[in-house]
Write a structure and sequence with these properties.
Elements: E1 3-7, E2 10-13, E3 18-25, E4 33-39, E5 46-51, E6 57-59, E7 67-72, E8 77-82, E9 91-99, E10 103-106, E11 110-115
Parallel strand pairs: 2-11
Antiparallel strand pairs: 1-3, 3-8, 4-5, 4-9, 5-6, 7-8, 9-10, 9-11
Length: about 120
């Protein structure tokens, strides 16, 4: 059974930082591309950051320079460090694991709320 369990969300003031974690089980983590997505109320889910199995990263323009995605293939965990948080970063953040076309999994999400 595949599980992606996010943690680290919460309430933070604008300008603060959070580190999200996503612990995986049931997959061969090292071969999966991993990503963080977010969905704000009334908006579509959007990509925040992605890291390939080879460690190549890419970021949404909205978080570039403020966020860092990383992975630990020993702990089967992907992280998202977010700094200089803004109220518009408020959303539910979801972890995603993908391998080829037919292997894709989502976590249950963790709420991030940034107060002004």
């Amino acid at each position: 059974q595949v599980q992606l369990v996010e943690s680290g969300g919460g309430l933070v003031q604008a300008g603060g930082s959070l580190r999200l974690s996503c612990a995986s089980s049931g997959i061969t983590f090292s071969i999966y591309n991993m990503g963080w997505y977010r969905q704000a109320p009334g908006k579509q889910r959007e990509l925040v950051a992605r890291i390939t199995r080879d460690g190549i990263t890419n970021y949404a323009d909205s978080v570039k320079g403020r966020s860092t995605i990383s992975r630990d293939n020993v702990k089967n965990t992907v992280f998202l460090q977010m700094n200089s948080l803004k109220p518009e970063d408020t959303a539910v953040y979801y972890c995603n694991a993908g391998f080829l076309r037919d292997n894709e999994y989502w976590g249950q999400g963790t709420q991030v709320t940034v107060s002004s």
